[in-house]
Write a structure and sequence with these properties.
Elements (H helix, E strand, L loop, with lengths): L14 E7 L4 E9 L6 E9 L10 E5 L14 H13 L4 H18 L7 H9 L10 H9 L24 H38 L7
Antiparallel strand pairs: 1-2, 2-3, 3-4
Helix pairs in contact: 1-2, 2-3, 2-5
């Protein structure tokens, strides 16, 4: 599993306890584990039939930390965009529709900063997918992911403009999750990798300067 605090992949090691015999022949259980990497606790609750006490719940709901198991956003991502992303991730378990609406606004802001200033999000997406400048074109994997979003939530029947970005339209849970996956990929492409390249070049130039050599070109 992936730790919802630090996103490190860890082995599951839950301590499970029965906390209350409920109505309608159900029993509530709580499970807890501590991430071996960041040492933070993870807490979930689940409901199972009281007949056959040993039977585990079919589903668990994470109650701490709240929200999805997506990790922190890179500091290279602009704060307003990161804020929308974090809110979209937090409300995902409770309202996929609201999460998708926040993701759309986040996506629109990313594309606008990348130079695609069309007011309709669908038109923005078309523009970036049809980009002919090799320096601005998306990598194949990211291109494919962004193209897929147009099939979500009857997107084509609900044009998303500046005024309607946050409108609530039907989406499946996995579609709302995929919207966040797309944002992760775009963060890496537009912000994280370019800033990492700048830092590496600055480090190289510092070494060249210390050696009395001109900076890289």
């Amino acid at each position: 599993m992936k730790c919802p605090h630090c996103t490190t992949g860890v082995n599951e090691s839950w301590s499970v306890n029965m906390v209350h015999l409920g109505g309608a022949n159900t029993v509530w259980r709580v499970r807890m584990m501590t991430c071996p990497e960041c040492r933070k606790d993870i807490l979930s609750i689940g409901r199972a039939p009281s007949i056959g006490i040993e039977k585990p719940p079919a589903e668990w709901s994470q109650v701490y930390p709240q929200g999805s198991s997506r990790g922190p956003v890179s500091l290279d991502v602009p704060k307003p965009i990161a804020t929308d992303y974090n809110e979209a991730a937090t409300v995902l378990p409770y309202s996929p529709k609201a999460s998708a609406a926040l993701s759309r606004r986040c996506l629109q802001a990313i594309l606008r900063q990348a130079g695609y200033t069309q007011k309709d999000l669908a038109v923005q997406i078309d523009a970036v997918l049809n980009e002919t400048d090799a320096r601005k074109a998306l990598p194949t994997g990211v291109h494919t992911m962004l193209d897929a979003i147009r099939n979500f939530g009857n997107f084509s029947a609900h044009p998303i403009t500046d005024q309607t970005t946050l409108q609530i339209i039907d989406v499946e849970d996995h579609e709302a999750e995929y919207c966040l996956d797309i944002l992760d990929a775009l963060f890496d492409h537009y912000y994280v990798r370019p800033e990492e390249a700048k830092r590496r070049r600055a480090a190289l130039d510092a070494k060249l300067s210390a050696a009395g050599k001109p900076p890289s070109k």
